[in-house]
Amino acid sequence: MMDERQAVAAFAALGQEHRLRIVRQLVTAGPDGMAAGMLAEAVGVSGTNLSFHLKELTHAGLVGSRREGRSIIYSAAYPDLSDLIQFLMRDCCQGRHEVCAPAVAALAACCTPTGDDSHA
Amino acid sequence: MMDERQAVAAFAALGQEHRLRIVRQLVTAGPDGMAAGMLAEAVGVSGTNLSFHLKELTHAGLVGSRREGRSIIYSAAYPDLSDLIQFLMRDCCQGRHEVCAPAVAALAACCTPTGDDSHA
DNA sequence: TCTACGTTTCAACAATGGTTGAAATGTTGA
DNA sequence: TCAACATTTCAACCATTGTTGAAACGTAGA
Asked: Mind telling me which SUPFAM superfamilies this protein's record contains (chains A, B) (predicted)?
């Protein structure tokens, strides 16, 4: 369960053009992640600069990394992104379900496979 | 549909202790909102400082305001918060539904009334 | 109109954050 | 061990941001 301090750090990390691109690139890349070098090229920043931002994102808990040969592979921390979203909307309803139903619907629409509507 | 520039502004706005508290206070307060003065007391900042942060949040599109007597009532912009969440997770699945299912489940659990499971 | 109240604007300051190039670290294959 | 590669660290600079108190603005009621 995320606390305020962590949430501030996470949002601050995402509130920067290059870092938001990095996270979105990694989210899109999926669990396998991407090497730092390719990430730098994809996002359009220097190696030095990417390293700075990756350190920030790592410290905020939004990305993870592993070494693979000479490369270091970064990947999105999906569980922490979930926690962050949940923190932002926590206590939003106050009994009024309709207030935040659109947010639920939007996220569900983004992530629920069409056709395969298994309720599990 | 939110673009990158808006998302960066929104996340940057949320990435500050006092502003995150303000937004959460307003989210908790519900659609009726709160007067600026009560908000300042609840969050623990001076009037001047609150005004500064509210301007930032307004510019980021995360809060709205209306005058009521001498007070100005601020309230959370729920649709924009939904958009922001959706932007962050957009394209996350890449065919792998299980990757972001936890985020959907977390948000749904927060906002779905227990017992009353109307699918509307 | 006058006074009190709630909120915002302004100007100044201290602190933080992003970018850059050069140098250091760690890894691989010859 | 050596040279080439991938990434990080370091130090310096410039720009942005958060905070503060005083002053200004707009509204309500006497």
From this structure: Winged helix' DNA-binding domain
Averaged pLDDT, B52-67:
97
Closest CA to B54 of B80, B79, B72: B72
Q: What is the pTM of this model?
A: 0.89
Number of domains in chain A: 1
B14, part of any domain = yes
Give distance CA A48 / C1' D2 (Å). Answer: 26
Q: Residue B29 is part of a domain; what is its CATH number?
A: 1.10.10.10
CB interface of A with B, residues 46-105, below 8 Å:
76, 78-79, 81-83, 85-86, 88-97, 99-104
Buried b vs exposed e over B23-47: b needs ≥16 C-beta within 10 Å? bbbbbebbeebbebeebbebbebee
pLDDT in tens, A14-73: 999 999 999 999 998 988 999 999 999 999 999 999 999 999 999 999 999 999 999 999
